[in-house]
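Case study 2.
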Amino acid sequence: MVYAVKEMFLTLQGEGVQAGRRAVFVRFAGCNLWTGREQDRASAVCRFCDTDFVGTDGAGGGKFADAAALAEAAQRFWGDGASRRFVVLTGGEPMLQVDGALVEALHAAGFEIAIESNGTLPVHPGIDWVCISPKAGSIVVQRSGDELKLVWPQTGSDPVELEQWNFAHHLVQPLDSVDAADTHAAAIDLVLQRPKWRLTLQAHKTLGLR
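Prediction:
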């Protein structure tokens, strides 16, 4: 399989339970909830995405002929040292491309594998850390994992229902918008009202990381 990757880079995980951890990010091109084109945003299922996942022209991106080639590229970004290797598969929607061959190749290269997905496709069972960020209006089939990350406020999402899903951690992240004060207040209020949730912020944006 040829993998289409928008970009790949070494950084620190900026949000969620794994925040602050050194990681290689592999951002796959393409999504099933939005084309990535601004002219289609208003009619998309997910209208608030702040990520460019169109094409393969980003730094470290490209088309990788097979899983071994992609895993080798991730190793180069990690650099020396085989301990605590951590790779985050994101997008777009990574499960449009992630398959058993890639999971096997990344594990063989010594990586612990995390994924950030919208949950509309089943996550490969070999992935070590599953983070699902559900989007209102989509049909989520992956209702279990390590981390449920709810972008808030989000019309059509019901935190009470989401609390029944089988995740170790329930996180709420303020919607990144021009009305930051309002979205921060809404997220804080949700946690104060429903203590199963924890607040997570996008620290990478504050720190100027990718």
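Residues 47 and 171 are 20 Å apart (CA to CA).
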